[in-house]
Amino acid sequence: MSIISKLTIALLGIVIALLIVFVFARIADESFTNGALGNLFATAIGLIIGIPIALEVNRIQEKERSKAEEKKDKRLKLERFQALFNRTREEINLNKQRLDRFKSALHKPRSYRETHWDWIIAISASFAFTTYEDYLVSGIQDQLPFEVDDAIHTAYSMLKGLQQRVTEAYAAEDYYSSGLSDQDEADKQIQFVKDLTRETDRRVSLCQDTINRYKGAILLSPTD
Questions:
Q1: Using CA atoms, how far apart are residues 24 and 48, in angstroms rounded to an integer?
Q2: Which CATH number is 174's domain given?
Q3: Minimal CA–CA distance to 83: which of 31, 28, 143, 22?
Q4: What's the pLDDT tens digit per position in 29-48?
Q5: How many domains does the chain have?
Q6: Can you tell me whether residue 48 is helix, strand or coil?
Q7: 155 and 128 both lie in a single domain
Q8: Is 135 in the same domain as 181?
Q9: Given phi > 0 = left and psi -120 to 50 = alpha, else beta, which region is 53?
Q10: Burial letters 59-94, b for 16+ CB under 10 A, else e
Q11: Contact present, 40 and 18 (Cβ < 8 Å)
């Protein structure tokens, strides 16, 4: 029951109580009794009819306000969903561009080992994860098809793994080539990064394809 309804009922109780007190105070006066009872009856009828009507009007108004607020909440929820989904798609595309630059740098001739690694590490450090972190805490996963959510998680997991592996491979290669003079083992480190890069590129491309395939349906009618 709304506050207005409660106040209306309370006011009705007060009015009735005052009328009862007033009537009993003047009940001995015959002229008052003859005139007042008719007015009292008319007032009572008015209250009996008017109060339920007022309560019903208030109930309808409350219901309309509730519907309007619910509609507004759903619209805002849809807008937030669409914005975050689009930001995630854009960040995936951005990471694909940076991954392409990473692949290009990785396959360049290695005239200077340290500067080559510095270049590779710098590109891997530019992989973006900001929107993905928002994605994880937003609950948007529950509104997406499993295939889309799985593709996004896998793509970002591969990017994060590649980023970490590059730094580790640089240290391992330095250890084997400089410390142990084991060039074969050192070469394995860069080859492992190349293999991981190839799989990461495949997963990120698959993520792009999956998002684009579902994009229209997702943005038009996300799951509640």
A1: 21
A2: 1.20.120
A3: 143
A4: 555 555 555 566 566 666 66
A5: 2
A6: helix
A7: yes
A8: yes
A9: alpha
A10: eeeeeeeeeeeeeeeeeeebeebeebbeebbebbee
A11: no
Q: Which two tokens stand for residue 144?
A: 């997406």
pLDDT tens readout for residues 71-97: 888 888 888 888 899 999 999 999 999
Q: 192, exposed or middle or buried, with CB in 10 Å at 0-12, 13-18, 19+?
A: middle
- Which residues in the chain show pLDDT less than 70? 1-51, 110-113, 177-182, 220-224
Hey, what are 7's tokens?
């106040």
CA distances for 103 relative to 34, 174, 194, 212, angstroms: 103, 21, 8, 23
89 & 172 share domain: yes
The reply to whether 82 and 24 lie within a common domain is no
Report the alpha-carbon angle 40-46-47, nearest 5. 90
- Domain containing 60: what range? 3-67
Same domain, 8 and 31: yes
